[in-house]
Amino acid sequence: MNLLKRLFNRKITTTLTVTSSNGFHLRPIAKFVNEVKKFDATITLKAKNKEVLATQVPKILSLSLEKGDSFELICKGKEAKEANEKLTKLFQELMRDDKEIERIEQEQITYSKIDMKGETIAKGVAIGRQVNYTKQKIHSSNKKALSLKDALNKTAQELESLYQQNRSKSEAEIFLAQKELLQSDAFQLHFETIEEEIAKLKDTKFENKIPDYLDLKKRIESHMGIETTFKLPKKVDTILFANELLPSEVEEISKISAIKGVVLFSGSTTSHASILLRSFNIPSIVVTQKEFEPLEKETILDANAGVVISEPNEKDLTQAKERQKAFKKEQEQSFQKRFETTKTKSGKEVKLLANITNLDSAKEAKELGADGVGLLRTEFLFTHNKPSIEEQTQTYQAIFELFNEVTVRTLDIGGDKSLPYIEIPKEENPFLGLRGIRFSLQEQTLFKEQLLAIFKAVDSMSSNKKIIKIMFPMVSTPQEFIDAKNIAQTIAKENNIDIKGIQFGIMLEVPSVIFGLKEFNKLVDFYSIGSNDLTQYLFAIERTHPTLSVDPISPLLLVALEQISKNVEKPISICGELAGLEVATQKLLNMNYTTLSVSAKLIPNLKEKIRKI
Ligand code: PEP
Ligand code: MG
Q1: Model confidence at 1: pLDDT above 60
Q2: Where would you tag: which of 439, 520, 557, 597 has the fewest CB atoms within 10 A of its CB?
Q3: For residue 100, what pLDDT band results from cuts at 50, 70 and 90?
Q4: Which tens digit of pLDDT belongs to each residue from 424-459?
């Protein structure tokens, strides 16, 4: 067989396992499919005796891949190898980042009577007249009616631009998901019979996708001159009672200031409409009750308690108004005070830093009031292609300009994180293998380039007042730290860069460090606890394990944290997920952990929570 033929016949298969508790659902599938299309290869997924094309969202959905299910990723053709590597990595990232949407805790409040109870979608207290949401289709005369083909294209463009505009936000994925659905056969080939296709989803596991299909249909039709309209009061404060809301309808509702709250009678708190209701801060709940009769009477929607009270008495109304005022004040305060320092009631000052991955997330963190960056996960800068030293320097420079304090973690690959252009020999237990600093000390090229890029960025900084820290991941022995720092000093010397101002520290995420703190105290300038890995290694439960998990505030983990806190003699922070968990805040402060590095969106509320402790 000649070389060309061999190339085209190349077939690479990898087995992947779904590790997210949400399963392999629409939004991550859409991201996956979006990437699949970039390769010159035929890519399929095989599971449960079924093989489907990976370019079609509905086909992948039909595999019903739940947490713990495995499937084969099969890539054939010219770019099979690249596709397999990139898609494997992307899939693992998607699983890792697909966080369960936490159930919103409800407050226990007594009203004289309660007419409905439901789960909270978005918090808030609303008072207004109940209005039933009814829609009507009309042929619009003021819009140019496009052909189906043009309407399909126009809708795809519209969704792509919505996705691009909102890219850093989670709700952007909804638009990408809809765009990928739009490009599936169901819409491209069978639009005429789309009603039947949608009807087939009823009473199946995919019932929750119906609103996305209907929404797409509506978007396409609007370009064909058919508008769906609804009559909504624009002047009177309103609580909308809706059997169903489509994602695009939530967008429209969000523009009507008279709509103060929403009660939904179908769907769930994790549906796409719910995600958008939360992002627009519209107080809302979902109730299971099927029958309702909108009374067009004054109503309280107390989404903080998850209740609806129709025609409330004076006492209930007064209580609701007070709760509404207090809640608004709290929200406004936490956002307005996001740039202010954070002190507990007893005067303990707490620093809230951000975990970031690139310049975009750095900007978002700045806007949300981060006091600095406690963890720059640099592996994300290396994800697709190897960045040049200059490219890296530019990114570090731009991030350093934004904050007075930045901790840059050197490449942390291995384990669940790989790079498509770096071969790590296959290991039986990658989490116990060539990870983090172990990899950098063995394959030194990337490590040296990265250090040089950071040094160059520090060297070119306009202010010398900034605190720049370099943090090594997965350090388990003092010698690893000594070796890594020696490499850094040699690189600086060879390039004539003064690095005396840079601090060097470690992630405290391997349990052996707890027992070597005496030695480490003499070497490092700082520590940051990686609670995600520390928990994994303390309990010997893989952090991505499909069925096993550890209580994030397990008493045993807290004992370890207590011991660490007592024995460290250098500044310490926490940058794992634990730092952002409100149930852990009080406990961490009690142990004297006063520097927390968390996902940026948690910062305003966490600051306010700490102010009340
Ligand atoms: C951790 O392990 O807690 C941590 C912050 O690092 P990562 O999640 O990137 O491994
Ligand atoms: Mg870690």
Answers
A1: no
A2: 557
A3: low
A4: 788 888 899 999 999 999 999 999 999 999 999 999
CATH code 3.40.190.10 for 2-97: no
Does 116-134+231-335 carry CATH code 1.20.1440.230?
Answer: no
pLDDT value, residue 287: 93
Which of 97, 373, 375, 532 has most ligand 1 atoms within 8 Å of CB, for mutation?
A: 532
Q: What one-character DSSP code corresponds to residue 330?
A: H
Q: Does ligand 1 have an atom closer than 6 angstroms to the CB of 171?
A: no
Q: Burial, 519: exposed, middle or buried (Cβ in 10 Å; 0-12, 13-18, 19+)? A: middle
Query: How many angstroms separate the CA atoms of 43 and 409, rounded?
Result: 35
Output the residue whose Cα is nearest ligand 1's atom 4. 530
pLDDT bin (cut points 50, 70, 90) of residue 315 is: very high
Which two structure tokens, joined as six digits, stand for 586?
């009080």
Give me the residue spans of the domains in the chain: 2-97, 116-134+231-335, 136-229, 337-611
- CA dist., res. 308 & res. 181, Å (int): 36
Convert the pLDDT of each residue in 152-165 to its tens digit: 999 999 998 888 87
Residue 420 contacts residue 82 (beta carbons within 8 Å): yes
531 CB within 6 A, ligand 1? yes
Does the CB atom of residue 357 touch ligand 1 within 6 A?
no
Locate the ligand 1 atom nearest the alpha carbon of residue 576 and give its number. 3
Residue type, 204: T
Cα 369 to ligand 1 centroid, rounded to whole Å: 22
Task: Decide which of 3.30.70.100, 3.30.479.10, 3.20.20.60, 3.30.750.24 is the CATH code for 337-611.
Answer: 3.20.20.60
pTM, rounded to two decimals: 0.69
Q: What is the pLDDT of residue 417?
A: 74
581 contacts: CB under 8 Å, gap ≥ 6: 552, 553
Ligand 1 within 6 A of CB of 379: no
Which of 93, 96, 377, 599 gets mutated to test ligand 1 (max ligand atoms within 8 A of its CB)?
377
